[in-house]
Design brief:
Layout: E1 4-8, E2 11-12, E3 22-26, E4 48-56, E5 61-62, E6 64-67, E7 73-77, E8 83-88, E9 92-93, E10 106-107, E11 113-114, E12 123-127, E13 131-135, E14 140-145, E15 150-158, H1 161-164, E16 167-170, H2 171-175, E17 177-181
Parallel strand pairs: 1-17, 2-12
Antiparallel strand pairs: 3-13, 4-15, 5-17, 6-16, 7-13, 7-15, 8-12, 8-14, 9-11, 10-11
């Protein structure tokens, strides 16, 4: 059976449009004091890792989405070129809440409880120019995705995030759905 193709129109990432998923951080004058316009980070669960990530062949489509339950994550294009990120709101379940006994609550390999994201909860953001995204703890994300053959991104997470805090959902396998970014 062929998967359903869901076409998503990208939303320009601004502090207002992205607030349910994290922050859009833009340039501020040197000497400004720390405030709400700065990335509100949680790197308390391990050793921070700030590195440049080289990515190739990331077409404007996806079926898998990931979240990190123990850390905020920052992503930005080194060149400032346009890129895209598929997202869904964090769905980590409090182990002490009644919700944990509810329907469709799963336990990750790292031990936390979560609800898989719904197909209709997925959004795509377009990131243009010199800014970066700070993802809230648990925000589901797919990408970075882009049109050129390759791009470089800076990434701030924990040194072991992709080993011990990497929970994924496969929409094609679980929901017979794939997402395509539709710019027209």
């Amino acid at each position: 059976m062929e998967p359903t193709v869901v076409k998503l129109k990208p939303i320009e990432a601004t502090p207002e449009t992205f607030k349910d998923f994290g922050q859009v951080v833009q340039a501020s004058p040197d000497g400004d004091q720390f405030g709400p316009h700065d990335a509100q980070l949680d790197l308390s669960q391990g050793t921070p890792r700030f590195y440049i990530m080289h990515l190739q062949d990331r077409d404007l489509k996806f079926s898998k989405i990931t979240h990190h339950a123990s850390v905020t994550q920052c992503l930005g294009s080194i060149s400032g070129d346009v890129w895209y990120l598929g997202v869904a709101k964090a769905s980590i379940v409090d182990p002490n809440a009644d919700e944990k006994k509810g329907e469709n609550v799963l336990q990750s390999n790292s031990g936390h409880l979560f609800k898989p994201p719904a197909v209709d909860s997925v959004r795509v953001f377009k990131i243009s120019g010199p800014k970066f995204l700070k993802l809230n703890r648990g925000t589901w994300h797919a990408g970075p995705l882009f049109k050129p053959n390759s791009m470089d991104f800076y990434n701030l997470e924990l040194s072991n995030t992709n080993v011990v805090d990497h929970t994924s959902h496969d929409f094609e396998k679980e929901n017979a759905t794939v997402f395509v970014i539709n710019e027209s």
